[in-house]
Structures are given as C-alpha cells and as structure tokens.
Amino acid sequence: MSNLLFISGLTAGSFVLTAVAIPFIKRLAWSLGLVDDPAGGEHKSHRRPVPYGGGMAIYLGVLFPVIVALLYALREAVTRSGGLALGAGAFLGVDEASMLLGCASVLFLIGLLDDWKGLTPLPRFLIEVVTAAILVIEFPEFRFCGDSLPLLGGLLSVIWIVAMTNAFNFLDNMDGLTAGIAVIATLALAAIALDVDHLPAAILCFVLAGATVAFLIYNFPPASVFMGDAGGLFLGFAAAGLSLLASHHAAADYPGFAPRLAPLLVLAVPVYDLVSVVAIRIRAGVPVWVADNNHVSHRLVRLGLTRRNAVLFIYAVSLVSSGAAVFLVGAPAAMAWAVGGGLALATAVAARLELRRPPRAEGP
C-alpha cells in the first residue's frame, strides 16, 4: 500500500470517527453536566450554555487511526523480518510518535477532569511539566539542541512544550479559533515531516488535522460544542512535541540554524497570543492564569472586526507563518534570514499598532 493512500485512509477515518462521535458525545456531556455555562465568568463570550466534549471526540478520532497505523507497521515489520525478531530499523520513528501521543493522552485526561470537576492551576501545571520532562528525557529527538547541549536543550524544550500546551488552551476563547489554528499548524508540520522522511510524525499530524477539521464543523461560529481543556491541552501538547520533532529531524537533514527554528514558526500565533496576554496581565498586576478578555482575538474585535472576521484574520496570519515555516526548512541561508527578518519586523509593527488599545477586564 502506498504511503499516500495509507495516510489518506487514516485521515479520512479520523474525520469520520470524530464527526460521527460528536453528536453522541454532546448528549453525554449534557447528561453528565459537562457544560460551559456563560455565568461561570465575566470573560465568557457565549450567551447560552454549550456542552464540552469536542476534545473527547478529537481524541477518539486520533487514537483509533493511530492504533490501526501501529498494527500495520507491526505487520509490515514482521513480514519483512520473517518473524518476530525485528530489525533495528523496523519501527524507525514509531516509538517517538507513540511516546508523544501517550504523553499527550495524559494531558487529555487532565483536561477532561478539569472540564468536569475543575482543577486548581498548580497541580495541572506540575503535571504538564512532569509529562513534558518525561518525553524530553526519554527521547533526545524532542530536545531543541539534541545531544549537543542536553541540559539547556532539555530545559528549553520542556518550557516550550508547557508554554504551547497552555497557549493553545488560552487561545480557545472564540468559536473555531484554536481548532482552526491546530488544523493549519498540523498540516504544515505534516509537510515538514514528509520532507524529512518521518512517516510516523506525518501520520500523526494528518490524523490530528482530520479529527480537528471534523470538530471544526461543529465548532465554527456559532459553535454547538466546545473542545474544552481536554481538547486544548491535548492539541497544544501534541503540536508542541511535533514541532520539536520536526525541528530535530530538519536540522539533521539541512545545514544551518534556520531548519531548526523554522518548524517552531508554525506556532507563531499561539506564541504571540501567549506572550502578549501574559505581558498585559503582569502589567495589570493580576495572576497570569486568571482568564480575561485581552487575548489577540478580543483585541481585534475591539479594533472593529466582528468575531468571525477576527477568527478568519488570525487564520490568515497562521497560514502565512506556517507557509513561511515550510518554505524556510530547506531555503538558502540568505533567503531564510531575509524572510525571517521580514516576519519579525512585520510582527513588531503589528504588535505596536495592535497593542495601542488599552486592555480591559469587562466582557468583550
């Protein structure tokens, strides 16, 4: 079976599983009281209760196709080796992708518990740190600097994973926003994974994208279901890990520093939102984990965009940064510096213009 046909089948399977599961999970969420009530905080932007459960549907839509892929890989490896004594390269890359999915599953469960019963920030944060550390310690491929600077690279990687895990969750403040960014990011990372011949990572990216597109059908404004912390933490952890994995393998395949940094550019929008909103909260003297209406999406609405147009505009920015990331992986050094410098300058100018409006704590 060709890789393209196999990946297409898995992606379609993830889409169908998620799309079919959501109506059932919505009813289950209502019966369990797994609902986001707008009375729960001033930062809530929806006017009526909306069930959680989208994260469960995304997770199921990812898990079963990945299990199929693993069984297929096992069968192929056994067939080629003539028995159960598998060669060293039989599962090349599968262990990395499997470990990432396993760690992301821990964050899914923590997020699901938070959606249902509520958790205080500290234990959730500690679990995020421990889970990210386990991933980075067990697999040097998830370290930003690989084996060259293991301690520094490991620390930076844990910080990156935890930051992006929360950035995706923070970004889930308008209908369709986090899901759309996740689709764009995972497809860009899939392109990079294919470029560096990491088929398991590419499969995981495509399956994530397929499941999230199906969820987006129900979540695009006006949303009838939310992904909740279960979906936000799961997608954020997976995307962060995949960006580090792509960075490691791109750096091994291409010379220069740009290939190592380019895959991280895929997540430029979550980075910008996280950094800017944390800066606003620190400047206002409030805890960084307290939700408010000062995310980039809210700020765009205050500049005059409708909610839907604000989401679409952020999609467009993510497409630009993700497209640039895919291009920069194999670009000549001079071109990489030029494009990277241009993007940095554009970001600085946009931030200066966009952040001129004072923050506010009331409803958007």
Key words describing this protein structure:
364 residues; mainly alpha; two-stranded antiparallel sheet; 1% strand
Coarse morphology? globular
Order of helices and strands: HEEHHHHHHHHHHHH
Would you tell me the structural class of the helices and strands?
Answer: mainly alpha
User: Roughly what fraction of the amino acids lie in strands?
Assistant: under 5%
Low-confidence stretches: 83-90
What Rg do the Cα atoms give? 20 Å
How far apart lie the N and C ends? 51 Å
Mean pLDDT value: 86
**Biggest sheet, in brief?**
2 strands, antiparallel
**Helix-residue proportion:** over 70%
Number of helices: 13
Strand arrangement, largest sheet? 1-2
Strand runs, count:
2
Word description of this protein:
There is one protein chain. By secondary structure, the protein is mostly helical. The chain has a domain at 3-254. 73% of the residues lie in helices and 1% in strands. The chain has helices at 3-32, 54-81, 94-116, 121-138, 150-171, 177-195, 199-219, 228-253, 258-265, 268-284, 296-302, 307-329, 333-354, and strands spanning 35-36, 50-51. The chain has a two-stranded antiparallel ribbon with strand order 1-2. It is globular. It starts with a helix and ends in a 10-residue tail after the last helix.
Short description:
This protein is mainly alpha-helical. The chain has 13 helices and 2 strands.
Layout of helices and strands:
Layout: H1 3-32, E1 35-36, E2 50-51, H2 54-81, H3 94-116, H4 121-138, H5 150-171, H6 177-195, H7 199-219, H8 228-253, H9 258-265, H10 268-284, H11 296-302, H12 307-329, H13 333-354
Antiparallel strand pairs: 1-2
Helix pairs in contact: 1-2, 1-7, 2-3, 2-7, 2-8, 3-4, 3-7, 3-8, 4-5, 5-8, 5-10, 6-7, 6-8, 6-12, 8-9, 9-12, 11-12, 12-13
